[in-house]
Amino acid sequence: MDTKTQNDLVRVAHLLADAARPETLKHFRRTDLSTDNKDVDGYDPVTIADKAAEQVMRAILAEERPDDGILGEEFGTKPGTSGFTWVLDPIDGTRGYVSGTPTWGILISVANATGPLFGVIDQPYINERFVGGFGQSSMTGPLGERPLGTRKSVAIGEARLLTTFPEVGTAADAKAFRKVAEQVQLTRYGMDCYGYALLAAGQVDLVIEAGLHPYDIHAPIAVIKAAGGVVSNWQGGAAHNGGRVIAAANSEIHALALSILQDSIDG
Q1: C-alpha span between 130 and 5 (Å, rounded)
Q2: Averaged over 177-183, what is the pLDDT?
């Protein structure tokens, strides 16, 4: 891919994040915010902010990159002819959003047939943006701009592990997760996409989740890999189709945690 195309994709990714930010912030921590539930068997909320943020991003893509495809959480798939697809999650962590916690984020990535190429994890309320791909890996926020970089190898007993839901996924998923959690120094819950950003920023060593959709993980894959980390499914293969995902700061702790997960699932 030529540099001009790469630069244009990066430019548009930032345009999308800039446009989605105010759509999410105008409704955040509003006590009158209403939700619809997309899950008849549980609770999967969607708000006016989710829909508005995705709509404004789609409008920009129609103007700036009309030949590209789109996969969005709220409005589905739009086929494209360019070979590029934008994968959009306007608010990853809507449960956190409606609870007022600043762990949700806007996820934007552009992918080709091989997977995500460039990704953005944007947290509007904290004013932080994490980007990665095409040789870039950086974050901006209240403390300024700095490069991203995952943690170097640490012993499993000193590792920090994040996930979103205590139940992780199925009972088998939870059992496997707990086997890893039993060996690390610290386990934290409820982080949504912000956990992946923290891994890319060198704050934690592992994020392990299950039941993900492609739009949940495309942007984190691009950002984490650009920062030096590893992302795979629980079989060690590509993770961009979602499902069970493990993200790790480096290949050593990835291999160790992956082995624990697989032993538990197999057992």
Answers
A1: 21
A2: 96
